[in-house]
Structure prediction request, 225 residues.
Amino acid sequence: MLVDFEKISSHERYKLLTAAVVPRPIALVSTLAPDGSVNAAPFSFFNVFSEDPALAVLGLQHAPDGSIKDTTRHILDTGEFVINLVDHPLADAMVVCAARLPANASEIEAAGLTVAASHHVRPPRIAQAPVSLECRTWEIRQITPTRHLAIGEIVALNARDGLIDPDTLYFDMNVYEPIGRLVANSYCHTGDRFELKVPSYPEDFPTTSPSPHPVSNQTSTKAKP
Ligand SMILES: Cc1cc2nc3c(=O)[nH]c(=O)nc-3n(C[C@H](O)[C@H](O)[C@H](O)COP(=O)(O)O)c2cc1C
Prediction:
């Protein structure tokens, strides 16, 4: 089946893309409002794209009523934001932060979350997040009348104690288990893992001529039962 993106609606493209590209990581983005209050909202049109410079990108759509979302407004105003990664214990609070609450209500309070000071940017991080990335805006661009793309330069990473070995900087992936967003309201754990090594040529290839089917010498194991 071929779907021609020029012949379908944006809603249909959304349905297809958010089902095809899964799981997506979730950025629970904390930003600072002009009155000093802290805003938090989840975004799964999100990923990191490079390490030099260290860049993360957010796809920020306008609200259904056409208004610009608080997160977008605050990033435009302050040039700073924090991307908090989401694990299972944080999942319920994360969805509360997506709710459209009355203007004066704090999502962070409603979600039972607390904040902790960041080191290099003014918006605080979410204290319960396993990992937080402090970002300064590299570029924010309105790409259509209803959407911005924000590119942030990550200037610091905060990790919960015990997640990263301070000597090697390796994450303990048996402890770090961010959730991923599947389509609509479904999510997945990331604990079911396996190892796969890129084969070396010619050692791992069966004949002298390059083959598209290298000899498999991989062992697949689940990280957890
Ligand atoms: C898991 C999840 C992922 C989301 N991803 C996005 C996204 O990538 N872009 C977007 O514009 N809204 C996304 N939303 C919706 C926003 O979180 C929601 O509109 C929120 O109320 C915006 O809050 P704000 O006005 O405080 O910025 C997502 C919601 C959830 C629950």
